């Protein structure tokens, strides 16, 4: 059974905030990571492209870091959106986050050629600062652990 | 004055290890990060492509994480290569590292449209495990701090 993300928070970011190389739906050359709820956890699914190699047969760590990064900001947005009383898909504009810090522990080499699944657990530090703990699986095996501290986008980001 | 990396460790990786999306010279679609000595520090220079956005005007954090990652493994390789009595460019095969962990603190939004410079300080933890502390500058301003723990590539990576 293929697992997919039906309702992704990134589908609802305003157009002005949809240019991210990792998760912006309007960035034609980007990865188009999409993050939604999966029970009480958050989930992002992505199949690396042929060029996303560390070595032939294994996925590039920087791609995994990117995956953890956008999964983290998307997860924080999902959680604050829910806390604000909204569900994804109802049309309310979700909050946008930026990454304050990113950490990835590479548990084992990540095989290339299969879908990666990120599962996130979101913790509120305070209303504008959230922590997302992520596990990245390939073919059911845990390959990386990540942690993102995401903060509500500051006005310095908005031109 | 333009600063460039003259002798990069990645130029000397064997062909079988030159496919990394971040720093492999043979990966046509990759970033081609190149890392060399800069005094007692290590240096990597990269100008993000137009699509490497977080928001219009600012660089994607996952790209910065990728930059810190390959800068880290390249720096560890430079340091062990030197410890082994070799200089870059003399033709000896350098040691190859993989990333055990990667951490990036985003100090401020990174402006898009200028070259990024990573400066690394390398610490030996033990002969097969090195830590690289990195500062990422854009236009002379510190935008991110990174830390990579790199280990000599284990045999599980070699097919």
TrEMBL record, chains A, B:
Domain of life (superkingdom): Bacteria
Domain Thioesterase positions: 57-141
Pfam families, alphabetized: 4HBT
Entry-linked InterPro entries: HotDog_dom_sf, Thioestr_dom
Name of the protein: Thioesterase superfamily protein
Organism the protein comes from: Neobacillus massiliamazoniensis
């Amino acid at each position: 059974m293929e697992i997919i993300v039906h309702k992704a928070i990134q589908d609802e970011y305003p157009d002005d905030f949809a240019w991210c190389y990792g998760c912006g739906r309007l960035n034609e050359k980007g990865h188009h990571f999409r993050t939604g709820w999966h029970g009480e956890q958050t989930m992002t699914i992505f199949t690396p492209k042929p060029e996303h190699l560390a070595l032939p047969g294994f996925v590039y760590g920087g791609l995994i870091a990117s995956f953890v990064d956008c999964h983290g900001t998307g997860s924080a947005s999902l959680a604050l959106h829910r806390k604000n009383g909204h569900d994804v898909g109802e049309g309310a504009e979700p909050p946008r986050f930026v990454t304050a810090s990113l950490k990835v522990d590479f548990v084992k080499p990540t095989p290339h050629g299969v879908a990666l699944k990120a599962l996130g657990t979101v913790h509120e530090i305070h209303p504008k600062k959230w922590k997302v703990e992520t596990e990245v699986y390939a073919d059911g095996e845990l390959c990386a652990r990540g942690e993102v501290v995401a903060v509500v986008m500051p006005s310095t980001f908005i031109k």
